[in-house]
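Help wanted!
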Amino acid sequence: MARPRRTLLTHERIVAAATALVDAEGLDALSTRRLAAELGVAGPSLYHYFATKDELLDAVANEVVGAVDTSMFASLGWSAALRAWAHSYRAALAAHPNIVPYLAQGPGRRPASLAMADVVYGALVKAGWPPARATHVGALMRYFVAGSALGSFARGFVEDPELYAAHYPHLSQAHRLAGHQRSVDDGAFELGLDALLAGLAATFETLRAAAPAR
Amino acid sequence: MARPRRTLLTHERIVAAATALVDAEGLDALSTRRLAAELGVAGPSLYHYFATKDELLDAVANEVVGAVDTSMFASLGWSAALRAWAHSYRAALAAHPNIVPYLAQGPGRRPASLAMADVVYGALVKAGWPPARATHVGALMRYFVAGSALGSFARGFVEDPELYAAHYPHLSQAHRLAGHQRSVDDGAFELGLDALLAGLAATFETLRAAAPAR
DNA sequence: GCCTATAATCTAGCGCTGTTAGTTTTTTGA
DNA sequence: TCAAAAAACTAACAGCGCTAGATTATAGGC
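Answered by r_m:
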């Protein structure tokens, strides 16, 4: 049982199995031995394909980010494109919530993150945003989307009303949040996105008025 | 060397040492044995004060969130209060960036998070926001602040221009970001906060016009 | 058609981790 | 004064990421 007649592993198979395991049981469940077992293989065999566990996690994160659609920047105005992109971005993260904490710690050197940043930045500059401001807009959108995908706001609340009544005078209805987690998170995201884009549109107009056209 | 004449540990001392260790060397450096050594004690002694490592981390996170100032909600209008609170909130997280990934995964049952949510929600409702919307506003602010504190946007970029020129046409100047990490992150936060608050003010007016006063 | 080099897996094992069990000694309270 | 509780200890377990070295199948050159 040393070298098999047909190769047992590929990068793709490992990344797919790792993604499935993290999705199903969380980041902590992903150990090299456990993942290897899932693939019908001994633990250290994975090191033939990835130098470290982090490198493997980066590959998983890269695939997740790679699923974000950025094609709208070619056809829509910057504001509409930003809105559609934010939705796609959030959906991609929400599809794999358990790797978000890992992924969100920095765009890192992940090619998919860099490619995304490139498209967004390029489109904003082309639309007339000053380069420095375009960088800020890209960053702030990432803050908002990553923050919203990171942890449900509503999830923290527990169904026991007694717990809140005593110490938190205004949170008397908070136990209801536990049952509406999804709609609270969605509503907050939509409200925030609307506000953000409306505010950016106003900023953009001010900028254009101050230093018109090119 | 069994029970000492004077108690060696307290909750406070442990939390303080854990915070210092995480701040100085990162989340991964915090192991029970390492922390215990720092306190001049054997590893398992910590379990007299905290049932699990997560409980200890929650205590650290709770202290960090407890440092956020919410007093402005008593004196300022909702918009100005939200702005000042966001700054305090971000500063509190930025002071301990290494626990942010842990902290951000949900408000959890941490008393400090619940107290903060209580004040914000109460102030917004009192200012005239409909309760459901007030919840959304609190959530979206958390998304933005946590997202901005989670990982520097600029940190991911590397100082080697060659790396970008080839594959990312618009990122040719991206290597400059590495040198201006702080100002990029600050600029993005301020721009986003301005946009968010301007947008929310417009939403608020619309809401008041539709269902005026009370 | 063999022989060598390389590729893909294995087993064994290191030092670390969070945590439990059970022991020891000191202090506290009746 | 004696028992109970408190606060530390040591020893140990299973699992972790990862390395080293052995093993065996395939591929390429003559």
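OP: Thanks! One thing I noticed: Residues 181-210 of chain A form the longest helix (30 residues).
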